[in-house]
Design brief:
Oligomer: single chain
Shape: flat
Number of strands: 21
Largest sheet: 6 strands, mixed
Radius of gyration: 24 Å
Number of helices: 16
Distance between the termini: 24 Å
Strand content: 15-25%
């Protein structure tokens, strides 16, 4: 068993990259993940009639009274309103929190996306740099015990993002949905005591954008609830028909769909200005028109830049500040290497102008003797799925093949082995 080559052409290793916005999954050696699954699961009571015979009343009546739940996974199912469907995320603070829901997503990945048995594929998982030991062991145990994977490996997502950009040593700035972190990576290993993170990410930006849109009175009814709409002139009141539902969608579903509507607005309209926000300068830029699902259209000008400013104007939490702080916590000898390869990754970094502004903020904080070089992949795929792409590269390298933790090692030494195998 131990002599088996996992990375050969016959056996494709799988790469899983869980995040707060979505889980990316696919085969190693490929350029992009096979699927991106939203990191929320819809849970609704299962009211389909039971087929098996009724249990006799004298049996323990646990099974007959326990409510059965139905789980809805992936965009198509989540975007359809259903009676009493609540949406739950299985992630918290960058780590997996709800293991039952997480297993549902992994089951879905194997059944619908990979469409192959789990025992045939070694699995590489990414994890956040501050992942806790018991969570790493739990994941190891689930993969070997439940999914019977032949081999398993855990890598810090920042190290993978550095690999994806061709660097073994880098300062990785990862701006995702719930937080932005600065993580120094030295020779492929994360310097954990110099990791700095701030709670400003894509979700915070969406929250601010939603507050602004609601403040100016824009109707954010999501597309899933609209049956038909008419074309109207700019700023005219929207004319649309709502779908007739026999039930009221749950608050968690409405919040998720409105967030998606605002996210669409954010991706289309919001832009980071190169220098700190100035109303006069921003007014000189062309406006951008956005049409909401209701058919309402409006031009947006300076507010596009004002919104994005929330990611940078915090003295302590701005991306430039946490990057400089993180580098400052590292040894003097390695700072030049970190500053000369600052890697930007994460979906939030795709906000227009983000990398230029970060580069400017960081250069004003870089010691004069050091050379600053920002590395931000041009393609959206490389930027959004940076750590997945790194995992895909790593799992297909020949020299990596002897590093897997095999099923045999797991059976001999148990789950605690993961800390030694995957530092």
């Amino acid at each position: 068993m131990s002599g088996m080559l996992y990375g050969g052409d016959e056996i494709g290793a799988l790469v899983f990259d869980p995040g707060h916005h979505s889980l990316r999954v696919g085969y190693a050696q490929e350029d992009t993940p096979k699927a991106e699954i939203p990191a929320v699961v819809g849970v609704a009571p299962d009211d389909t009639p039971k087929i098996e015979p009724e249990t006799k009343p004298d049996d323990s009546n646990v099974s007959s009274t326990a409510p059965a739940w139905k789980y809805y996974i992936d965009t198509t199912f989540l975007h359809t309103p259903r009676p009493s469907m609540e949406l739950h995320s299985y992630m918290k603070d960058g780590m997996i929190e709800n293991w039952d829901l997480f297993e549902k997503i992994v089951d879905y990945s194997y059944d619908k996306i990979i469409q192959s048995e789990s025992q045939y594929h070694p699995v590489l998982f990414s994890e956040c740099p501050w992942n806790l030991r018991h969570k790493r062991e739990k994941l190891t145990e689930i993969m070997f015990e439940k999914y019977k994977v032949p081999a398993f490996f855990l890598v810090k997502n920042a190290a993978l993002a550095a690999f994806a950009n061709g660097r073994a040593t880098a300062l990785v700035i990862d701006s995702g949905a719930t937080h932005t972190s600065a993580v120094p990576v030295l020779d492929g290993y994360v310097i954990t005591n110099a990791v700095v993170k701030s709670p400003l990410g894509g979700d915070y930006l969406i929250l601010k954008a939603r507050e602004m849109l609601e403040h100016i009175g824009i109707d954010l009814t999501p597309a899933a609830l609209i049956a038909s709409k008419d074309v109207v002139r700019d700023k005219d009141k929207p004319k649309y028909m709502k779908k007739k539902l026999s039930f009221q969608p749950t608050n968690s579903w409405m919040a998720y769909m409105i967030k998606k509507t605002v996210q669409d607005f954010q991706q289309n309209v919001i832009q980071v200005s190169e220098s700190p926000f100035d109303e006069r300068i921003a007014a000189g830029f062309p406006t951008i028109q956005h049409e909401f699902p209701t058919g309402y259209r409006q031009d947006f000008g300076p507010e596009r830049f004002k919104l994005a400013e929330v990611l940078f104007d915090h003295a302590m939490l701005g991306a430039g500040h946490i990057a400089a702080t993180s580098a400052g916590m590292c040894d003097v000898d390695i700072r030049p290497a970190l500053y000369s390869s600052v890697v930007l990754t994460g979906g939030n970094s795709l906000v227009q102008g983000f990398s230029d502004r970060l580069s400017r903020d960081l250069s004003s904080r870089t010691p004069g003797s050091l050379r600053l070089k920002m590395i931000a992949a041009n393609g959206t795929v490389e930027r959004r799925f940076g750590s997945w792409v790194g995992g895909s590269i790593l799992a297909s390298i020949g020299t990596f093949q002897q590093m897997w933790m095999s099923m045999q090692e797991y059976q001999e030494a148990g789950k605690a082995q993961i800390d030694r195998k995957c530092p």
